[in-house]
From TrEMBL:
Superkingdom classification of source: Eukaryota
InterPro entries named among the record's database cross-references: GDSL, SGNH_hydro_sf, SGNH_plant_lipase-like
Family of this protein: Belongs to the 'GDSL' lipolytic enzyme family.
Protein's UniProt name: GDSL esterase/lipase
Molecular function via GO: hydrolase activity
Cleavable signal peptide: 1-23
Native source organism of the sequence: Urochloa decumbens
Record keywords: Glycoprotein, Hydrolase, Signal
PANTHER family (alphabetical): GDSL ESTERASE_LIPASE, ZINC FINGER FYVE DOMAIN CONTAINING PROTEIN
Length: 373
């Protein structure tokens, strides 16, 4: 693959603008790389919708937000990838859509903790009765965006310019769908039935946004779910061969890899169908594996890579009867030494390192129109 001198210059210069010697984001605040960011997804992206729509507990109570300095409704001890991306491109944190006191001119976050890609109808058709705690699927989040859109721009030309230059995240999403499927089906059945349906829903959401004027879209993939303390607790196996060298469940990770491969294919198909749109896959999977492979490089404790910082005890410090933020759970002294915050979500340092890889990968790709898969 050959690049022009301008493209190569972008690869060389943009990372220097984004990061200083200490790794902090330094994109010039007076000239954001995008006019706005719009984010769709689940708990890996929600910046406050869940605590408004469902319940402020536990995510708006200590110890959530302890590293940031206060609880913010985020499912972590601090910030999420979308926060670091926003800061990295010169924009403020993306406000939750359900907080009607916010100014959405520079973006809105529609993600909700616990959200699924698929509507409840799909699960009922598959005889899966594991109900979602609320109706905040991708189709609902898209409807919220459509409700907001008239207030963002007026004319076709204005909307085309504003939305066409804005950055859209569709995901991470799908993990909650797979947990629902696994409550009634085997891993292989989930892989065969649920994964293609989830990917089709994500692709359909991206296509709908393109039809609304979006031209810069990032599709974050799935984490290695078999490495999450919650999954390791819920699906223990007496067979040592079911675990890989990191101690993660092989079959569950294979499910996540299949999700990511289909999502990459969908990104490529959308780029072919809409050649004027810049669409990139953003990887969660490999960065998390890097944390497990060489934890010391990121400041993590090798003995706690699969142990939640905040939890209620057990081999992986995950106890659904004493979930982080509820009685019986306690937080570790230094979250920066842990990969996992509460057994499901990651710590701020983990999210920060993931966001840094995105800023010089898929974000750079959609900003400058560079090839990226």
């Amino acid at each position: 693959m050959r690049f022009s001198a301008g493209v190569l210059l972008g690869f060389l210069v943009l990372p220097c603008l984004l990061y200083g010697a200490d790794g902090n984001v330094l994109w010039p605040k007076k000239k954001p790389l995008f006019p706005a960011i719009f984010s769709f997804g689940d708990s890996y992206a929600d910046t406050g919708n869940y605590i408004i729509e469902v319940d402020p507990r536990p995510y708006n109570f200590s110890p959530y937000g302890v590293t940031f300095g206060r609880p913010t409704g985020r499912a972590s001890d601090g910030l999420l990838p979308v926060d670091y991306v926003a800061d990295g491109v010169g924009l403020p944190f993306v406000p939750p859509y359900l907080d009607k006191t916010q100014n959405f001119s520079e973006g809105a976050n529609f993600a909700v903790i616990g959200a699924r890609a698929l509507d409840q109808t799909f699960f009922l058709q598959q005889n899966i009765t594991f109900a979602a705690p609320m109706n905040s699927s991708l189709s609902v989040q898209l409807r919220w965006f459509e409700e907001l859109r008239p207030s963002l721009c007026n004319t076709t030309r204005d909307c085309g310019d504003y939305l066409g230059k804005s950055l859209f995240f569709v995901g991470e999403i799908g993990g909650n769908d797979y947990l629902a499927c696994l409550s009634a089906k085997t891993v292989e059945q989930t892989k065969r039935i649920c994964v293609p349906a989830v990917i089709n829903a994500i692709a359909a959401a991206a296509e709908s946004l393109i039809q609304h004027g979006a031209r810069r879209i990032v599709l974050p993939g799935n984490v290695p779910m078999g490495c999450l303390p919650a999954i390791l607790t819920f699906y223990p196996s007496p067979n040592v061969s079911d675990y890989d060298s990191y101690g993660c469940l092989r079959k569950i990770n294979a499910l996540a890899r299949y999700h990511n491969e289909l999502l990459r294919r969908s990104a490529r198909a959308l780029r072919i169908k809409y050649p004027d749109a810049k669409i990139a896959f953003a990887d969660y999977y490999q960065p998390v594996l890097a944390f497990l492979r060489t934890p010391e490089l990121f400041g993590f404790d090798r003995n706690r890579t699969l142990v939640a910082c905040c939890g209620g005890g057990g081999q992986y410090n995950f106890n659904p009867a004493a979930f982080c933020g509820f009685p019986g759970a306690t937080a570790c002294a230094d979250p920066a030494r842990s990969v996992s915050w509460d057994g499901i979500h990651l710590t701020q340092p983990a999210f920060k390192n993931i966001a840094k890889s995105w800023l010089v990968g898929p974000i750079l790709s959609v900003a400058l129109g560079l090839p990226f898969v």
